[in-house]
């Protein structure tokens, strides 16, 4: 026999023994013992600590003897914040207009355009061809063959 088949047979026997033992353990070892869903925590070392009361009220909240007040943003404050943000946007737009005024208009054109097949041939020659007529490589796309 090959080593693989010997390994597979031994591994299968080990798995059968393992699962047999696990099933037997589940069936017979926990019989009659019910687990409780409650957890118990040992808090004997926490006796020196005191709890702190936290109280919430309309103006804020209290933690122990300390009082904290919360601030509510009114609709007028929200409108003033929106005006500040809109004024910032206006500044950005004005800066963009100034920049565009100083820019020159131009049209981008290609001096020596290639179509897809010619560009592919040029890439195959690693750009060493001096002109389009020197690229005499015939290519056959793999996609067409599939």
Automatic annotation (TrEMBL):
| Annotated TM spans | 6-24
Instruction: Say which domain of life the source belongs to.
Output: Bacteria
Entry keywords, A to Z: Membrane, Transmembrane, Transmembrane helix
**Designated name of the protein:** Conjugal transfer protein TraD
